[in-house]
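Reviewer comment 2.1 asked that we show a complete input and output for one of the modelled complexes. We chose the coenzyme A case, as it is the one discussed in the main text.
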Amino acid sequence: MDTKTKSRYPEIYARSLRDPEGFWGEQAEAIDWIEKPKKVFDNNAGIYGRWFVGGVCNTCWNAVDRHVKAGRGKQAAFIYDSPVSNTKRTITYAELLDEVKAFAATLRDLGIRQGDRVILYMPMVPEALIAMLGCARIGAIHSVVFGGFAPKELATRIDDAKPKLILTASCGIEPGRIVAYKPLLDEAIRLAKSKPDGVILLQRPQAEASMTSGRDYDWASLRAAALRDGKSADCVPCVATDPLYILYTSGTTGIPKGVVRDHGGHMVALKWSMNGVYGIQPGETWWTASDIGWVVGHSYIVYAPLLHGCTSVVYEGKPVGTPDAGAFWRVISEHGAVALFTAPTAFRAIKKEDPQGKHVAGKNLSKFRTLFLAGERADPDTIKWAENILKVPVIDHWWQTETGWAIAGNPMGLDPLPVKYGSPTVAMPGYDVKIVDEQSKEMPAGKMGSIVVKLPLPPSCLPTLWQQDERFKESYLAEFPGYYKTADAGFKDEDGYLFIMGRTDDIINVAGHRLSTGGMEEVLSSHPDVAECAVVGVADELKGEVPCGFIVLKAGVTKPSAEIEKEIVALVRDKIGPVAAFKLAITVNRLPKTRSGKILRGTMKKIADKEPWTMPATIDDPAVLDEIGVALKGRGYGS
Ligand code: COA
Ligand code: AMP
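Response of the prediction step:
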């Protein structure tokens, strides 16, 4: 670390590792507890210890009630801005409290109790956020499933979480396309073995859906009845270590991992992060352009801004096309946002349409201080372009669904450190990040290795996977004993700056969305004409990476390969969903393999990305790589 810097970061970070209980114990004072934790950290609890053991609290209280009690009732909690539905709506903290109390009472009256699971399959509408808070209020565990996933993916999550209730809307609105959610949900429930007791359906005027009698409730009628009858649910005392939510994320197989987030640690870390990581003050307007279906949406559209008493912009639209590449500047200017947090891909999309940044002209960005990027590697070109047109610091930070907040960032509230392009800067408090080799031996500065975090992980990080302790241990803790495996590879420079270079598993990052190529391969293999296949992520100017599937057809197949490729593309859309952005299937005669039969996916990717590659010594037949090169060239990839 550069000792010349005036940042308070080095001292605070060092203390967080030297005295974690003292550090996080102090941060926990910013939260209202029903009963204070008996221990800040209990090494003997859980799999690697647990934070705030014995504490009793309620996340909804801390996000909503507390602020109304403290006089923030008239301040906007959410500003819903939806260019796709032509709607804007401001919800004050006082209004939010009324809505959440009524919705929580509705859930309770439908039989939802503490610990029950509720799945949300919804677009970016305020009702979805009210519902998440309503669950938190009564201690029900919510699990939000992103709307771009197909019925089969939703069914897998239903079978794992076994929700009593599912909340949905009649449709989502994508530019130029209305996505009818209800038929997708009906199909998912049909596919799932575990059936919910009921469904609450929010009808949207863009496409109303038919109700399934005996199972579906109309959202608007339930809301109206609850408000009319003055129904209200109080905050239920929740044990700090109990789950607030489950969020499924891609794993190394097709079966997603149910990341568990607890109440206490989550609140403490997120509250700290709003000033520590982002330099935001209570009362300020903050905007995260993501979706509540992703962790970024959970943490920084819903929970962190509310825990901090901020106004959070809820945007249902895209960076481009709704209606143009000036949409982000309009939202910042109209609502007086002091910061924006989004994925680099959004900025690449804007840059592509408006390279000169002409749309910035005439927008009032006077309050705007910082742009934060995360979710995928922020390429220096995009960072420099954004700095140039916005004239504010552009801050990359690195985190995962598993952690719920930044592992590495530039601590804006502790006086920022100098930016190094290509680096998300330094480890955040509580994360003892190391770069190690296969034997867990630390690598010298500048040398690539696996990025691991010394246990225990700080508050908010997952204590386990939903009802899968063994899978948690095996996936994250087994390979590097004593450490959490991030499954990212990279290096640290001599100043302690981290550089995140890519995943060590089969995960790819498409437009900031995390997807498993293994999951896609399972779908490709299910096609009756496919003998074997491999899916790799190839570089894409806009989305960072896109999946590319190689298929080898079974002997004797007479159907034209172009037809099969089209079927494969449709199959992935049908089984995983449009979010997979799977548009490229290439038929080849054989796949490159090692002599022991391992498919050389890494080399195929390098050929597609025109990166230098060496012939693997263990390759079975080097000629196959030439064939792959020719096939890729035919589709405009490789050289
Ligand atoms: N419901 C249904 N379908 C959805 C969806 C949703 N909530 N979200 C996306 N999709 C669909 C899209 O319409 C698209 O369908 P198509 O194949 O028919 O065009 C497909 O899923 C792929 O979506 P995406 O990869 O997002 O591409 P896009 O072209 O629609 O948009 C960006 C590209 C860059 C504009 C967009 O990805 C974006 O804004 N990303 C940055 C913000 C973000 O959400 N980051 C994630 C976490 S921080
Ligand atoms: P998700 O769980 O969807 O948030 O995806 C987490 C993964 O996205 C990480 O493991 C990284 O591979 C990647 N990622 C997230 N943020 C960054 C970043 N700032 N730089 C590089 N990769 C990132």
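The two ends are 41 Å apart (CA to CA). We note this here for comparison with the apo prediction described in Section 3.2.
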